[in-house]
Amino acid sequence: MTNHVPSSVSVQGLQETLDALDKKLGSAQVVKISKQALKLTGKYMETEIKKAVETYRDTGATVNELVVSTPRAKSGTVTVKVGWDGKGSDQRYRLVHLNEFGYTPHGIYANHANAVDSKGFAFYKPGGFGKIRQAYDAARQPSLELARVELRKLVN
């Protein structure tokens, strides 16, 4: 079983734990255990992202519509997704990216905060600008460590 971890993050012992489990229990059991560990890790990430978007809360829809997927195995990799799925009544998935990345009045893409669109309008940087990325970056290493610890607990 492979475990894809972003190259900027490394948790000592995570891959070794998965490899040892694979030899000891077999791939099917490792996938089952990995899903259990990722369920907890997904909940942790959800909590951290909710705290981040709570800082610019208005109606609460952005916080309330955040979802965690069921862990799924595909091509030997088990994943869980945290985000907005668009099934909520307020359809926050359509607006989250504007808070996260900013915008211009005419919808012109700007890749930096000092950008000006073709009509001379400045780039808007809302209160939630970059909050999700900051929360993700801060929680990434602890969530991987949580997954490693949970895997070890599930095996023992």
Characterization of the model:
The chain is mainly alpha-helical. Helices cover 50% and strands 8% of the residues. It contains 5 helices and 4 strands. The strands form 2 sheets. A two-stranded antiparallel ribbon has the order 1-4. The chain has a two-stranded antiparallel ribbon with strand order 2-3. A hairpin with a 2-residue loop joins strand 2 (72-74) and strand 3 (77-79).
Keywords:
single chain; 156 residues; mainly alpha; two-stranded antiparallel ribbon; 5 helices; elongated; disordered N terminus
Number of strands: 4
Structural class: mainly alpha
Q: Given the structure, what is the number of helices?
A: 5
Question: How much helical structure, as a percent, in the residues?
Answer: 40-55%
Query: What Rg do the Cα atoms give?
Result: 19 Å
State the separation between the terminal residues, measured CA to CA.
20 Å
Helix/strand order, N-terminal first? HHHEEEEHH
Low-confidence segments, given as residue ranges, are: 1-12
Overall 3D shape:
elongated
Layout of secondary structure:
Elements: H1 14-25, H2 27-54, H3 61-64, E1 66-68, E2 72-74, E3 77-79, E4 82-84, H4 93-101, H5 131-155
